């Protein structure tokens, strides 16, 4: 199985060079990265918008510069993760309170059977117990306007209806993380970026991009990503690990691969209810 997971980060971490070879570091923004890393400020890019778009400037870069090389290769899978969030090999329904194993041995295996029974893989969903996705967004991002409703008007009539129906549910796959075939990746980007660019222009014009809301386009994209894949493809789910600062430490990872230590898996996964 040919799998390439692009791991997006705004800083250089030694740990990312110690991950399995199918995980490829992708530096975002203006920071300096090693020459052997990919960088979203090269070639065709929107890196200057990283302050507002977050990790999706990396998705844009992959779309314009990488995925066309694999579009017709059915055996290929393209995915994204983040420097603190890595795909796991299984789906976990309970927090791992104690495990002697290490995180490295629990990372996604390219031979996982999930690739033979799905068109896309998303992060294990978060369930909101008291609010739907529309209400939860408005609670967290107090913009003073009905932003999701306004931005849905930038979609075509059918897409708007489906998107708003999705927002009335309470299940969200977060972080703009997914794994899919290149042809589906390209179809997703062809719909995401024209829409998110219109959302960005509205937010900027109305001076909504400030404080925590400076990355409103990324938060809007998060809901669209979860919606688009579940609406259009046969989706299955995997858990992810959230890596703490100690395991990311450059001082330690110069000499050791921290996530290969025993017991490093017990702090993780990943299912949360709100």
Structure description:
There is one protein chain. The longest helix is centred in the last third of the chain and has 24 residues, at 182-205. Helix content is 32%, strand content 16%. The protein has helices spanning 50-53, 56-65, 133-140, 147-152, 157-167, 182-205, 216-232, 245-248, 250-253; strands spanning 2-9, 23-27, 38-39, 76-82, 85-87, 120-123, 126-127, 171-172, 178-180, 235-238, 240-242. The two termini are 36 Å apart. The protein has a seven-stranded mixed sheet, covered by helices on one side. It is built from nine helices and eleven strands. Helix 6 (182-205) packs antiparallel against helix 7 (216-232). With 274 residues, it is α/β, with parallel strands linked by helices. The model has no long low-confidence stretch (mean pLDDT 94). The chain has one domain (2-260).
